[in-house]
Amino acid sequence: MLNKKIKILFRHHSMEMGGVEKVLLGLLNNLNRDKFEITVCLSLNQGKLRDELPEHVRKVYLTEGKEDFSSNNILQKLQLIARRIKLKKLRDNPAITDNIINDTFDIEIGMDYRDYDAILNSTNKNSKKIGWFHSEVNVPKFQPLVPNILKSFPQFDHMVYCSHKIKDMMHHYYPKLDYPSESVIINPIPIEDIKKKAEEKLDNFPEGPVFVSIGRLHTRKGYHKLMEAHKKLIDEGLHHSIVVIGDGGEMKNLKDQATNLNVEKTFILAGNQMNPYPYVKRADYFVLSSESEAWPLVIAEALILQKPIVATNVGDVGLMIKDQETGYLISYDVDEMYKGMKAFLTNPELVLHIRENLKNIESQFDNKKIFDSVEEIIETLHGK
Question: What is the pTM of this model?
Answer without folding.
Answer: 0.78
